[in-house]
Design brief:
heterotrimer, A: mainly beta, B: about 30 residues, mainly beta
Chain lengths: ~200, ~30, ~200
């Protein structure tokens, strides 16, 4: 058994980590921190033409989430970048040059999905380090699989510490969990060590 | 959608109807 | 030792407090609750001209955070008001007239800072109660120091309960933790008792 004081320490420690963006790790992809989306290569945003913005009853435009939401922290259902099909690309410029050590992929939990499933979640993906944004094949940093039965937030560690440092990374998604029309990317984070 | 391997040349977000934010002069104040 | 039920109560209590804006206290400076930034006196926003907003490849403007973010709850890295140098002023009109009892200053934790330090955090500061926004020297409510080795969120209590009530307060920052160019103010809160 533990004492009340020990339990309080445990709880405080857990809340502290939770309050530190849930990971306690710097996210070098975060837009407000200096990250930016450079390109989505040949993937296209899935335009549903479903969210209509109007003023005084006059329809103005259809709204859809831009790829930038993938490096923004809002995780509410719908605040994802949806690309057509199950193969997508996201080229991100990090806030600084780092030696990447891990990546975090997040999706909404099934409990919050109105459909009861998360078939639009990414499945197999890879991350590459690029020398510049025009490089077509960068250095493979790892191939991973987001598990739809796992936690909402999943972290994937680079197996072999890269020799080079990168300021540009490419997230390549190869498949999703079954959605026939689109894949939703909620948030992608990049962790690592800044070069001295 | 292309198969695994190289994709077409990078299509910058300039062709999309979204406001694009890019950092051109160093990092923002943190 | 404590029982599982007792531990559960402890956890629920901690989560409840966390969900109540982490303090369980009214923030009379909060913008959405009725607070507003009146002035920054002679401090100037540190313009980096670094965050460029474009549309269809056409540059539109440079974005920088306004002083209003200091009374908004978004605490992600970068969502701070940066003023030039280490001396800054923020004059805030509270949502109602109160007898101030405490102030909260927040900064991002070091663990989330891409630079690994929080030299841009405020250090010595004071809070004054003003009769009106043009008053140059208000009533000193307290002088405090934000500790860079302390918790991310720090609360400072007014030593002597003020006789007067105020609807306008001025936050005066005198120094920071070493950043040579700017100081970043993430969030400033004002707590107290509304007058009857």
């Amino acid at each position: 058994g533990i004492t009340e004081a020990q339990a309080q320490v445990l709880v405080n420690k857990a809340l502290k980590l939770y309050s530190q963006d849930r990971t306690g790790l710097v996210d070098f992809a975060l837009e407000s921190g200096g990250g930016s989306v450079l390109s989505t290569r040949c993937s296209e945003t899935f335009e549903t033409k479903t969210a209509l913005i109007s003023l005084f009853g006059i329809p103005l435009w259809y709204f859809s989430q831009s790829p930038r939401v993938a490096i923004q922290p809002d995780m509410y259902p719908g605040n994802c970048w949806a690309f057509r099909g199950s193969q997508g690309y996201l080229v991100v410029r990090l806030s600084m040059k780092i030696q990447p050590s891990a990546f975090t992929l997040e999706h909404i939990p099934k409990t919050l999905s109105p459909t009861g499933n998360i078939t639009s979640a990414p499945k197999d993906f890879a991350v590459y380090g690029l020398e510049d944004e025009y490089q077509e094949e960068g250095q493979l940093l790892g191939r991973f699989t987001y598990d739809q039965e796992g936690e909402s937030l999943q972290m994937f560690h680079v197996l072999k510490r890269p020799e080079s440092a990168f300021q540009i990374v490419e997230l390549r998604i190869f498949s999703n969990w079954g959605h026939p029309e689109y894949t939703c990317l909620y948030r992608f984070r990049v962790h690592g060590e800044p070069i001295k | 959608p292309t198969s695994e391997g190289s994709c077409c040349s990078p299509a910058r977000l300039a062709r999309t109807p979204y406001l694009v934010l890019s950092y051109v002069n160093g990092p923002p104040p943190i």
